[in-house]
Amino acid sequence: NTIGVIFDLDGVIVDTAKYHFLAWKNLADDLHIEFTETHNELLKGVSRVRSLEILLNIGNVTLSDDKKQAVLISKNEDYLGYIKKMNADEILPGVKDLLNKLDSRGIKYVLGSASKNAPLILKQVGLLERFEGIVDGNSVSKAKPDPEVFLIGAKKLNLKPESCIVFEDAIAGIEAANKANMISVGIGDEDTLNEADFNFSNLTEIPNNFFEELIKE
Ligand code: G16
Ligand code: MG
């Protein structure tokens, strides 16, 4: 095929942001930092280490490197407690229909996520085997908005970046896709994701001929 798709995970395939929030909130409480759902928006699509820096900044708290390592481990253990309870009911609307459509058209897709827990999450919801490849937080050295994660994805698809379509819910992810010279599709709030080439509120809104039209171009 002449095109391929790269999916972000959190906010596109599943909503794990709510579990990240619960785990960060626990940590924030321990550190006496006030942390709200609005603050949580700042962490979407951002790496784990960077997320901690943002949280500490909000609370004006400094920690030693050792303490940082320790709280990152406990935050992740807490988060994994929620992830291990996930199942296929948590797949976001429109995802399965879209994957079926891509399968029937022979269009390949990979995952491009900042999460080091991405394979586990896909396994929990029963989608792991469907992807041609997984690029996650373990395989990249530079976090979004750096395009690295998506450029590795293009290699896995055996396609040039211009032939890849990226579905993303975070500003940093859209920026990464644009820098990679890919077609960026923002999923979520159109005003927030105004740098995207296309915008849809969720995956059920993708028109039937969306991919055909892109192939024609
Ligand atoms: C996801 C989330 C981020 C999270 C990051 C790292 O990214 O949106 O909030 O900080 O993964 O996750 P972990 O702590 O599991 O390694 P994405 O790229 O899937 O949206
Ligand atoms: Mg995301």
Concise structural overview:
The protein is an alpha/beta fold and 217 residues long. It is 43% helix and 11% strand.
Strand order of the largest sheet: 3-2-1-4-5-6
Number of separate strands: 6
pLDDT averaged over residues: 96
Gyration radius over CA: 17 Å
Percentage of residues in strands: 5-15%
Low confidence ranges: none
Helix content: 40-55%
- Give me the strand/helix succession: EHHHHHEHEHEHEEH
Alpha carbon gap, first and last residue: 14 Å
Q: How would a crystallographer describe the biggest sheet?
A: 6 strands, parallel
Number of DSSP helical runs: 9
Q: Name every ligand kind in the structure.
A: 1,6-di-O-phosphono-alpha-D-glucopyranose, magnesium ion
- The computed structural class is alpha/beta
Silhouette:
globular
Write up this protein.
This protein has 217 residues and is α/β, with parallel strands linked by helices. Helices cover 43% and strands 11% of the residues. It has helices at 17-30, 37-41, 48-59, 65-83, 95-105, 118-124, 148-157, 171-179, 210-216, and strands at residues 4-7, 108-112, 134-135, 164-168, 183-187, 198-200. A six-stranded parallel β-sheet has the order 3-2-1-4-5-6, sandwiched between helices. The protein is globular and about 55 Å long. Bound molecules: 1,6-di-O-phosphono-alpha-D-glucopyranose and magnesium ion. Magnesium ion (MG) is lined by residues 8, 10-12, 44-45, 169-170, 173.
